[in-house]
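Changelog-adjacent note: as of this version, every example in the card shows the full chain rather than a window. The one below runs 378 residues end to end.
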Amino acid sequence: MIQELVFKYLQNEASEEEVVQVLNWIEKSEENKLAFIELKKMWLFITPNSDAKNLFDWNQLKNQFPTQRRKFYSRKWGYVASIAVILASLSYFFTKTNSTDTKINDNLENVIVLEKSSGSKEYISDKTNKIIKDEAGNVIAKQNDKELVYYKNEAIKTTVYNTIKVPFSKTFKITLSDGTVVHLNAGTTFTYPEQFVASENSRNVVLKGEAFFEVSKDKSKPFIVEANEVSIEVLGTTFNVSNYQEDDFINCVLTEGSVRLSEKINPENSVLLEPNTKATWQKGKKFFTKKSVKTTNYSSWTGGELIFDKETFSSIAKKIERYYNIKINNNYPFLASQEFTGTIKIKETAVENILELFKLDTPFNYTIENGIIEITKP
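Full-length structure tokens:
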């Protein structure tokens, strides 16, 4: 069964769930890793000059492989000829290895990855359920579709951290061991304690990307989100933080409660937020600005919607790129500065339909090829 999946994986024909099955099987043991390497080598040697088009043929060739290799070594090649063949084989092997690694990396870009404190990884499909264990075999969390729920374990005395990476075009939700719920947007990396231990004075997490927090109240242990050079401290509240590397700002929008944002290296440089306000930190300028906003415009993505209110096309295009895992090259400067207001149900709408809606207001031409949208003047 696993050989069939590995074959589909190497052929880049596996579904998302099948890719996750293969990756989890590889991570399960050193024996599996070695077995995968052997299968990959076998696949690389067999596929180039064969007509193997399906699993049946591949299995036939695989079974013949040891015999073929023995014959290869038993022949009385001249010394020079042997070296030439070996060098040619190695050259082909490394070329194909790079090609296969590229395919593997392409697959990994579409999979949610959980990195545990030990360095081991769990590959998560948002359409399956699974149990997450620590290195000692203890159950630490359970996945239900698009949510990962950590169990509270007061016997744990040492803080260790897990990191989850959500690729573009996906969202995910985590319930931490203190009951805090964190919605993770597309293209987000989130680092958090596997358990919040009693000896720590605060609950610290690290965010790169975007997340909506519903923090469990604990007056004795403030919850602190570290977002590059900014720290966001709360006791119990709901708020949205956006900290994408490609943006020149960090935003925090408060829905309920209160939060305090401060510069990490200069905590006195800070701002206190009230509900329905947004604080913005301009990267490189080292100051905060604050204004009143409609908070639903910033948290609607958790429900599969994108709401924009007098927002420029260039800003909207960045969000579309993340939600649909595409690249938009806008070669029409007039369109970039145009402002739009509206709501898009991103879970139900194809990107072509969104572009057609924008065209009704501001006409432009576009092409889509290999995940890249080229926009030009009409």
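Structural remarks: Residues 128 and 145 are 5 Å apart (CA to CA).
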